[in-house]
Structures are given as structure tokens and as C-alpha cells.
Amino acid sequence: MSRRRPSKPSLQSIHRQRPPPSLITPLIAELAPDEVSADTKVLRDGFVNFRDQLAEVDYDVASADLAALADAELHAASDAIISYSATVCDPASD
Q1: What is the dihedral of CA 81, 78, 11, 93, to 10 degrees?
Q2: Are 35 and 50 in contact (CB under 8 A)?
Q3: Is the Cβ–Cβ distance between 60 and 66 less than 8 Å?
């Protein structure tokens, strides 16, 4: 008898519950499909870092260090997630 892995809650079910973004951000990588989980963690960590930098300058974007968003690893992770989404999640691909 094989054991089924417990299913992850869907992002849609979490969205319907309307939790604050501070609760969603840590969950994003945990809920991502295995194929993009590592990329999602990179993206999550990049946005958390940027959020923290914004907090340090009282959310004044003009004073924030935007170089963190130009990180090559962050862009590669974003590209991988977009590619995965277009391939797997695009209804036109059915």
C-alpha cells in the first residue's frame, strides 16, 4: 500500500482566506510546485530583502537601494517561474 503525500493547500484557497501578505510571503515557496520551489525561494528571499530595505528608509522608494532587484540570480529565478507558469499553467497549452 503506497502512502500519498499530504496535499499542499492551493494558492487560490489561501487567497480566498485573505491572509495578510506578511503571512503569505513565507508560505509561497512551501506551496510552489517542486519544479520551481528553489526558484520561488530565491524570489521570496529577494522580495523579503527588498521589503526590509524599504522599511529601513521608511518606504521611500527614491531612497531605497534598488540594486538588490537587479540581481542576476533573482532574474533567473523569475524567468524560470514565468517559463514554468507559461508551460504548465497556461490554459492555451491544454
Answers
A1: -30
A2: no
A3: no
* CA dist., res. 89 & res. 85, Å (int): 5
Q: How confident is the model at residue 1 (pLDDT cuts 50, 70, 90)?
A: very low
Among 34, 33, 27, CA closest to 48: 27
| Residue 85 banded pLDDT, cuts 50, 70, 90 | confident
DSSP one-letter code for 1? -
Q: Which residue has the cell 517542486?
A: 34
Assigned C-alpha cell, 32: 510552489
The 10 Å CB-count burial string (b at 16+, else e) for 45-72 is ebbeebeebeeeeeeeeeebeeeeeeee
Task: Provide CB contacts within 8 A for 14, sequence distance 6+.
Answer: 24, 27, 31
pTM of the model: 0.65
Residue 24 near residue 32 (C-beta atoms within 8 A) = no
